[in-house]
Structures
1.
Amino acid sequence: MFLHEKGMTVPMVDLDMMSAENRDERYLKKNPSGQLPALELDDGRVIAESVAICELLEEHAPTPALIGSTPDERAETRMWVRRIEFGITENIVNGWRFAEGQAFWSTRGRTIPEAADGLKALARDKLQWLDGLMDGRSFIVGDRYTLADIVLFVGLDFGEMVGQPLDPGLSRLTAWRAGVASRASTVASLSA
Ligand SMILES: N[C@@H](CCC(=O)N[C@@H](CS)C(=O)NCC(=O)O)C(=O)O
């Protein structure tokens, strides 16, 4: 979604996550966390963590700004990205890893089954809190479409797949999500 918004293309290499191709020695040499995505630079260095990759892409292609075009704007976006990752998306993912995703995850990292329900509930609490703040806002950061929208949209899309759907009673977030889903960059990304 970030690349499509920027109109950028980068050469892509697909790895099969299900057969743990991203956990073999060859990939771990590039990215010791063993996770996708990773961006390999021309000099061989590897940048992992999707938010760090997006930050780098924005430095190379500042417009349209998806993080911000001033220090204040960038700080606002980063504040929301952190709130969304720490409060919502990471809890959705770990809630799944420790429950329905255990068979997939237990060979890759620790699982804490007793934490699953609580993590899912934490994500729901934060979504309710965020919904209450969305009155009059088109996007997470007011009227700017940013990386914060992309991170949340992708996390909710994953939640939808793993039995943690967005509560339709959260009407502002439901409307926000429909808007993001209809963006050309989202449509292009989902059909890639
Ligand atoms: N914090 C990382 C999370 C990356 C992540 O969870 N990647 C998933 C795919 S979306 C993955 O590689 N899963 C397979 C695995 O961990 O083996 C980021 O934002 O890039």
2.
Amino acid sequence: MEGACVPGAVLRGFGNSVGAGRKWAGGLAHAYWAANVPPPFLGFLTSSTTLPEVPPPSRPPAATPCGRPRPLPAPPPSSPPPPPVVAPACNPDRGGFGARSRERGVVPGARPGYGRGSPASRSGQPESLSQLVPVPERSPQPSSAVRLAAAAPGAPPPPMAAEIQPKPLTRKPILLQRVEGSQEVVNMAVIVPKEEGVISVSEDRTVRVWLKRDSGQYWPSIYHMMPSPCSCMSFNPETRRLSIGLDNGTISEFILSEDYNKMTPVKNYQAHQSRVTMILFVLELEWVLSTGQDKQFAWHCSESGQRLGGYRTSAVASGLQFDVETRHVFIGDQSGQVTILKLEQDNCTLVTTFRGHTGGVTALCWDPVQRVLFSGSSDHSVIMWDIGGRKGTAIELQGHNDKVQALSYAQHTRQLISCGGDGGIVVWNMDVERQETPEWLDSDSCQKCDQPFFWNFKQMWDSKKIGLRQHHCRKCGKAVCGKCSSKRSSIPLMGFEFEVRVCDSCHEAITDEERAPTATFHDSKHNIVHVHFDATRGWLLTSGTDKVIKLWDMTPVVS
Ligand SMILES: [Zn+2]
Ligand SMILES: [Zn+2]
């Protein structure tokens, strides 16, 4: 019997309210607290408590706020699965100015306000959907190009180096190997544990196992042609079971021989109606979890080959993680939402959804130890959802100038590796106390100099002053005019590795120590679609749109 999913028990906290994350807007956290979401959060585990259901607000189509979209095949995360537990708290009301907050709270789709970047507008989805037309208040995207350039050997010093680049980068990933030969993009690949080898699946329909030869080059020891392009894979080293998702919706399972010279077909699952987007094989439960372009999440028993259940996702999924211990599955989709389901043998329950991205989720990574979920998005940001911390904390990480394509977490050093469509690799130190960005305050006049904003006709008339545009300080969240916020600063502990708008007083208050970067920036020199990190050796595999796989020694930067 195929399990049906019970869409009850929508959990509060992170879930089902407005996310945040308008690019550069800062301030996520409040976003989930927006819209009638009451406080204390419930654990995932206890979340079957029935709560008044809040229908998820419909989202605008996922957009890449900062442009430069790159039409890549949806890429997957490549990280170890997980155990989560609890969801976060909610913040009651967040001030604001009377009339407006009321409007905000009530009338969905009402008055086209001025998009003054209230926390709601940051989500790309105004809390309660009222008001807010996006205002072009966004500092120009600075400097990762500059940083990357700086990181590249022989690059000329960037013009703004003194301000942007606090320390020269001396340590960087070492390119160990280029693995070439695929006719099309390698959609997924993994480093073979304890071997100098790589397993790859490609759009050119091939499954290849590449082993390092005496020549020092990687050559295929297995070259197998599938009936359809290979979109994704899951490899279980203990059993050497290789599950391959195909463009035609089938999942094909093989066992690789011990010497990686042969692969034996085991079975096929007719899992999806169209392209399989993600697969996870869960040895402990003998489950094969998968998502497809048919917007289905499905799980099969790998013993019997039987379909156990399914769930319709709101959009095509491109991130899939599983917590074995608590049997929660995390599904990130192209609408920008992360859906959390609790799986039973043959049914599932919707636990909650996280909304924080303004673009589609491109990758998920679960850290079962800290119980933290990372989501990467085409909106260029990464959000760290602190489930284990039980406070509803969500931290935004802004360090890419292009869509985030893949994530990996180095547990032993507590470093997050995020890779961008532009080839940028950012290594984040997650062993620091990070802060949430502040909520954006609403005001009809500058909270520093009291000049009216341009919609404030009354004050403009009364004081015979010209209305100004509203901006927001990323550090304190105050609504300020351009003159009172002319300076820029990075705020690494708030996730702003690039410079963002801050008010004059915050600019003065930020110390050089606070400006010290918490991430390092590197250039893989190809547009990354997928990564895999081998923690035991500190090797990173990147697969690019150039059809090349690169192996990197990350120990200079991940240690
Ligand atoms: Zn001002
Ligand atoms: Zn400020």
